[in-house]
């Protein structure tokens, strides 16, 4: 690449970084960081542990984001110096290093640009993910467990903490359903594009005749409810059932009826939690999930009202959105974005960023087209 070409590339990178900075607003970040640092230094911060965790988590996130932005700006300035040096010294090796650094910066900025597209009401929040087996019998239950592992591995790859609230194991293999939380800023905005019906095609390991089987699993993604959401649930609107926590094969996790199932009577929504040791903790966790589902229901009701005013109707989030084919060929393809890869094993091991990024871009295009 000639020096003139790399200079054009740097100009494009500078423009892209400038757009990201205009959305992220580093100055506002610095102001909020200073305010949060004052809160963290307060001696009574941990009197309210939930608020303390929220404050420290937000502070850590903003510090990392600001460091990332300032680091990218510094890398871009260093790149400009590198190109200038290559021109003055007529040094091809330095120019080659500059080309590689420019490519690396482009990749980093592309990934960061996707984050700027997350501007929904709840996009900044943690995510509550529920996976359910659907049509396909034991293969569907096994597929649901594969998807759960996929999302937990994706979270692990990114260093995001997770907490499993509830797993309902199937009789032969796999799971009927599972609910877990991904604790990271923008987890909801990022993972919400994974919501929908997933389809698996493979030679069934549970069919002694070795026939090809198609099975389905559903993924639901909700934002974590915060105190400011004011989702009031009167006691008379819920029924609380307790039962004994259990794992695969029905083996007891403990010997008390600590697991909790809550039914929201007005809507019929049912949630359960069994990962905590006490009934009180499980009830609190189940209520948080119920609040998240009621919050999402309210959002969808508002969205349905808006869609009813449009001639073209609503969207198709509940429809089939991705196929995982293991036989007769190897491919994972997103049916909305046409993004596809030929390595399902890597995808099931958590390598889903390409699909997530494409889904976020696709959703933004749909939103713009609907205006």
UniProtKB/TrEMBL annotation:
<keyword id="KW-0648">Protein biosynthesis</keyword>
<dbReference type="InterPro" id="IPR004374">
    <property type="entry name" value="PrfB"/>
</dbReference>
<dbReference type="InterPro" id="IPR000352">
    <property type="entry name" value="Pep_chain_release_fac_I"/>
</dbReference>
<dbReference type="Pfam" id="PF03462">
    <property type="entry name" value="PCRF"/>
</dbReference>
<feature type="domain" description="Prokaryotic-type class I peptide chain release factors">
    <location>
        <begin position="244"/>
        <end position="260"/>
    </location>
</feature>
<feature type="coiled-coil region">
    <location>
        <begin position="59"/>
        <end position="115"/>
    </location>
</feature>
<dbReference type="InterPro" id="IPR045853">
    <property type="entry name" value="Pep_chain_release_fac_I_sf"/>
</dbReference>
<comment type="function">
    <text>Peptide chain release factor 2 directs the termination of translation in response to the peptide chain termination codons UGA and UAA.</text>
</comment>
<keyword id="KW-0488">Methylation</keyword>
<keyword id="KW-0175">Coiled coil</keyword>
<dbReference type="GO" id="GO:0005737">
    <property type="term" value="C:cytoplasm"/>
</dbReference>
<protein>
    <recommendedName>
        <fullName>Peptide chain release factor 2</fullName>
    </recommendedName>
</protein>
<feature type="modified residue" description="N5-methylglutamine">
    <location>
        <position position="251"/>
    </location>
</feature>
<comment type="similarity">
    <text>Belongs to the prokaryotic/mitochondrial release factor family.</text>
</comment>
<dbReference type="GO" id="GO:0016149">
    <property type="term" value="F:translation release factor activity, codon specific"/>
</dbReference>
<dbReference type="InterPro" id="IPR005139">
    <property type="entry name" value="PCRF"/>
</dbReference>
<keyword id="KW-0963">Cytoplasm</keyword>
<dbReference type="Pfam" id="PF00472">
    <property type="entry name" value="RF-1"/>
</dbReference>
């Amino acid at each position: 690449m000639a020096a003139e070409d790399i200079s054009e590339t740097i100009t494009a990178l500078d423009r892209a970084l400038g757009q990201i900075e205009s959305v992220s607003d580093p100055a506002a970040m610095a102001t909020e960081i200073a305010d949060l640092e004052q809160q963290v230094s307060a001696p009574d911060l941990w009197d309210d542990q939930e608020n303390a965790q929220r404050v420290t988590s937000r502070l850590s996130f903003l510090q990392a984001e600001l460091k990332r932005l300032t680091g990218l700006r510094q890398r871009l300035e260093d790149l400009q110096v590198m190109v200038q040096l290559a021109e003055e010294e007529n040094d091809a090796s330095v120019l080659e290093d500059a080309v590689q650094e420019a490519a690396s910066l482009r990749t980093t900025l592309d990934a960061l640009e996707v984050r700027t597209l997350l501007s929904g009401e709840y996009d900044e929040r943690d995510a509550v993910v529920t996976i359910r087996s659907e049509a396909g019998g034991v293969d569907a239950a096994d597929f649901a467990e594969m998807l759960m592992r996929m999302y937990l591995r994706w979270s692990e790859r990114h260093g995001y903490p997770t907490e499993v609230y509830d797993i309902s194991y199937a009789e032969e293999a796999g799971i009927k359903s599972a609910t877990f939380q991904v604790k990271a800023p923008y987890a909801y905005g990022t993972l919400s594009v994974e919501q929908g019906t997933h389809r698996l095609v493979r030679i069934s390991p549970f069919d002694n005749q070795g026939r090809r089987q198609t099975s389905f699993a559903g993924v639901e993604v909700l934002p974590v409810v915060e105190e400011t959401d004011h989702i009031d649930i009167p006691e008379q609107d819920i029924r609380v059932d307790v039962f004994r926590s259990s794992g695969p094969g029905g083996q007891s996790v403990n010997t008390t009826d600590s697991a909790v199932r809550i039914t929201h009577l007005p809507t019929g929504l049912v949630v359960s939690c069994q990962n905590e040791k006490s009934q009180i903790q499980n009830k609190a966790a189940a209520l948080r999930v119920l609040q998240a589902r009621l919050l999402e229901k309210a959002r969808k009701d508002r969205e349905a009202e808006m869609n009813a005013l449009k001639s073209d109707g609503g969207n198709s989030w509940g429809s089939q959105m991705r196929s995982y084919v293991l036989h007769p060929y190897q491919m994972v393809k997103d049916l909305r974005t046409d993004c596809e890869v030929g390595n399902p094993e890597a995808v099931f091991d958590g390598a889903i960023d390409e699909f997530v990024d494409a889904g976020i871009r696709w959703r933004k295009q749909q939103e713009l087209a609907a205006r």
